[in-house]
């Protein structure tokens, strides 16, 4: 009886966790699409891997995405800004979120 309840609890937890990760993956995929459509016209991805880059934290990255959005007048929503930031962080920067 205890083992059955334990297995049930673990199963529920795994379903919940996989749901969160799929939502996050969707945000990253949306961020990638937005980035490719709106950002690659000004620069390519080498800007994110250059040795003298000016981005040193997740907060720096979020601020830079917001700055670039304003410069090109892309009009990203807050959710879209977060999606692009999360995509860039996942793909290139690997910062721990503040």
Provide a descriptive summary of the structure in words.
This protein has helices at residues 2-38, 58-72, 78-93. Mean pLDDT is 82; it is low at 10-24. The protein is globular and about 60 Å long. It has 98 residues and is mainly α. The longest helix has 37 residues, at 2-38. The chain has a domain at 26-93: Orthogonal Bundle (Cytochrome Bc1 Complex, Chain D, domain 2). It is built from 3 helices and no strands. Helices cover 69% and strands 0% of the residues.
Give me the oligomer status: single chain
- N- to C-terminal separation? 43 Å
Q: In terms of structural class, how would the helical and strand content be classed?
A: mainly alpha
Q: Calculate Rg over CA atoms.
A: 18 Å
User: In the CATH hierarchy, what is the architecture of the domain at 26-93 at level 2?
Assistant: Orthogonal Bundle
Q: What is the strand content?
A: under 5%
Which whole number gives the mean pLDDT? 82
How many β-strand runs? 0
Number of helices: 3
Helix content range of the residues, please?
55-70%
- Profile the largest sheet: none
Poorly predicted spans: 10-24
The rough form would be described as globular
Order of helices and strands: HHH
SSE layout and pairings?
Elements: H1 2-38, H2 58-72, H3 78-93
Which key phrases capture this entry?
single chain, 98 residues, mainly alpha, Cytochrome Bc1 Complex, Chain D, domain 2
Short description:
This protein is mostly helical. Helices cover 69% and strands 0% of the residues.
């Amino acid at each position: 009886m205890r083992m059955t309840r334990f297995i049930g609890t673990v199963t529920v937890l795994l379903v919940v966790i996989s749901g969160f990760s799929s939502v996050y993956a969707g945000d990253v995929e949306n961020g990638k699409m937005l980035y490719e459509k709106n950002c690659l016209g000004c620069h390519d991805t080498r800007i994110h891997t250059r040795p003298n880059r000016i981005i040193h934290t997740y907060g720096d990255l979020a601020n830079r995405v917001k700055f670039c959005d304003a410069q090109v007048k892309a009009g990203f929503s807050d959710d879209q800004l977060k999606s692009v930031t999360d995509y860039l962080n996942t793909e290139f920067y690997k910062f721990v979120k503040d």
